[in-house]
Amino acid sequence: MALLGRLLPLALALALGPAATQASPGKSPYQLVLQHSRLRGRQHGPNVCAVQKLIGTNKKYFTNCKQWYQRKICGKSTVISYECCPGYEKVPGEKGCPAALPLSNLYETLGVVGATTSQLYTDRTEKLRPEMEGPGSFTIFAPSNEAWASLPAEVLDSLVSNVNIELLNALRYHMVDRRVLTDELKHGMALTSMYQNSNIQIHHYPNGIVTVNCARLLKADHHATNGVVHLIDKVISTISHNIQQIIEIEDTFETLRAAVAASGLNTLLEGDGQYTLLAPTNEAFEKIPAETLNRILGDPEALRDLLNNHILKSAMCAEAIVAGLSLETLEGTTLEVGCSGDMLTINGKPIISNKDVVATNGVIHFIDELLIPDSAKMLFELAEESDVSTAVDLFRQAGLGTHLSGTERLTLLAPMNSVFKDGTPPIDARMKNLLLNHMIKDQLASKYLYHGQILETLGGKKLRVFVYRNSLCIENSCIAAHDKRGRYGTLFTMDRVLTPPAGTVMDVLKGDSRFSMLVAAIQSAGLTETLNREGVYTVFAPTNEAFQALPPGELNKLLGNAKELANILKYHVGDEILVSGGIGALVRLKSLQGDKLEVSSKNNVVNVNKEPVTEVDIMATNGVVHAISSVLQPPANRPQERGDELADSALEIFKQASAFSRATQSSVKLAPVYQRLLERMKH
User: Fold this and answer.
1) Which residue, 199, 232, 265, sits at the end of a domain?
2) Does the CA dihedral 370-373-377-381 come out positive or negative?
3) Helix/strand/coil percentages in the chain, nearest 5
4) Average pLDDT over residues 653-660
5) DSSP code of 369?
6) CB 615 within 8 Å of CB 627
């Protein structure tokens, strides 16, 4: 089945030809999607396009590859239908759509493409039909019959009651006095209409959707003798205001208007460009606690970050959203813009109450919820939204809450909630001091941390940074989630409670009665100075029980041979600091003795040379101690290692014998070689 799964896409690609696997140079996104629809439909005959239709609606889409397999538009199921590609028609008795549509003038072409209501209204004006039937070159963005029918009754009445002014002007606004095909419709361009030279905003998206004042092209490039017709899904109206002017005249933007003025962003919103403003209504601002809102409105930097988080870098019409998209804001954050049926969503929430208000410099969507970026939040707000609420409660109980809501620059190392699944520690002086050591005296970003960096805490401790292949740790605690950088502080979510180092490795061992025999052995071997001086050591420390488990004769022999004792103890000391969070599947750590230790981690259990570690990450100023329940033997002392040496010797013997046989081209038997091997194995 796996092989079949790999072969099917290849077979499909071969069947569809090179066009299925390679983008055609020079083709617009719309043309590429149309090409894909044509390829999917060609089994039904020439010039047949596969079209996705939303179940229960008349909305149809030419399909791209992703949509073809997902069979969904805005999360709603679709069915595939097959119809003639634009510009072609069926012939009775023949397969597919072999005939090109006959070329006629623009007026007649409106009827051919199904825009009969546009054709009817053209008839009602005195001047427009002769123009459409006469000489010239024009482009008509013709509203579909459904588009006219969906107009509010009062709007439609005002048009048809004054056909030679209102209706004529509306129709002329849908026209351009030259032929414009889809390959010329570029994203962000403006076309000059035939009504008072008013602009029409064009957007051509990577998914192949083309919009005209946010109305979607349904079928494009229907040629006529005197121009081209594009069928669109809305009746469009003139654009006369920029984004800032719309904010000024909309009553529901009173708070937004004041915020924009205070931030100085009005210059941007009234200037050139193509933006999307996710405009918070008064209701959106009212949902925010008054204290938080007043703080942001009174802080120019936070306010600017807040507003920039509502401005997308390009114009995005609702009709262009057929699936989830990650779009960047002027603040630099990413918003997930998607759709669910007819509703647009922001970060999965249907908070857009009014969409596609088109401006001369972009488009506005009204939203009923404020999108506050991390950069405008205080530390406690970041923490409340993260998986560290238990730690935040501890900070508050310890009287440290002011650090989370103040203006000092710091980084909070907050253990995630799962760390406290067995309960929270009582708050006493020692615990308060430990919590102070979870606050770094600077606002950091993890991407700038480096191995060996020293960080100073509010509790006065100095913490080290360790960078491993797949983890970034501060002492024994590793970062478990992406940073959240707030207005003054940064939140690091940590995988455990941090333990600041307390003395050297020797101090740690001497202070723990479990290691009294190890301390005596280190002193006997003359290694005390080594483990007391500055350095970076990982010590796998055998407990007293580990030494007592040795055969009495072996233990006495070991303790009586200072050189051999030093050799074995050095094998327990790695030459770099390796905390448990940095281990991964397997790490080969070089020991001071010279051989390597194999350190692995699986299901939160650490092993060294396949022996379990009973306690990890006892931090020291010059290293880390891991407690183990056995004494590790260097490779040269292990029976299996001597077997490995024997195997190597046997291999070398065979190599020499084979080389001799080839060199002499003799039929020397290799029996003597086997005999020598057997003799070696006996010994």
Assistant:
1) 232
2) positive
3) 40, 25, 35
4) 50
5) S
6) yes
Tokens at 213, concatenated: 């004042």
* Residues 513 and 605 placed together within one structural domain of the fold: yes
Is 675 a member of any domain?
A: no
Domain identity same for 169 and 207:
yes
In a domain, 188, yes or no: yes
**Residue with the two structure tokens 């003395």:** 503
Using DSSP's 3-state secondary structure scheme, residue 647 falls into helix
Residues 105 and 132: beta-carbon distance below 8 Å = yes
pTM: 0.80
Q: Of 394, 370, 374, 301, which Cα lies nearest the Cα of 334?
A: 374
Predicted confidence band of residue 582 (pLDDT cuts 50, 70, 90)? very high
Please check whether residue 333 lies inside any domain of the structure.
yes
Q: How many domains does one find in the chain?
A: 5
User: What are the tens digits of pLDDT across the range 109-168?
Assistant: 999 999 999 999 999 998 999 999 999 999 999 999 999 999 999 999 999 999 999 999
The kind and range of the H/E element at 474 are strand 472-474
| 387 shares its domain with 368 | no
Domain with 116 in it: what CATH number? 2.30.180.10
What is the pLDDT, as a whole number, of residue 648? 52
Cα gap 439→459, rounded to integer Å: 8
Fill in the amino acid letter for 349.
K
Q: Are 478 and 533 within one domain?
A: no
Instruction: Give how far the C-alpha of residue 75 lies from the chain's centroid of Cα atoms, to the nearest Å.
Output: 20
The answer to whether residue 673 scores a pLDDT higher than 50 is no
Question: Do residue 369 and residue 257 come from a single domain?
Answer: yes
Place of tokens 């937004």: 256
Query: What's the domain range around 301?
Result: 244-373
Same domain, 299 and 383: no
pLDDT band per the 50, 70, 90 thresholds, residue 681: very low
Express each pLDDT in 18-28 by its tens digit: 333 344 557 89
Closest among 355, 148, 330, 316 to 232, alpha carbons compared: 148
Going 398 to 399 to 402 to 403, the CA torsion angle's sign is negative
E strand spans, 11-136 = 48-54, 60-62, 72-73, 76-84, 88-89, 99-100
| Residue 202, φ and ψ in degrees, nearest 5 | -110, 135
Query: Does residue 366 sit in the same domain as residue 319?
Result: yes
Cα–Cα distance for residue pair 582/598, rounded to 1 Å: 14
Q: Is residue 350 located within the same domain as residue 433? A: no
* Final residue before a domain boundary, out of 469, 494, 519: 494
Separation between Cα atoms, residue 534 and residue 273, nearest integer Å? 59
Kind and range of the H or E element at 391?
Answer: helix 389-397
User: Does 106 have pLDDT greater than 50?
Assistant: yes
**Residues 483-508 as b or e (16 or more Cβ within 10 Å = b):** bbbbbbbbbbbbbbbbbbbeebbbbb
Q: Enter the tokens of residue 223.
A: 């040629």
Domain assignment present for residue 67? The answer is yes
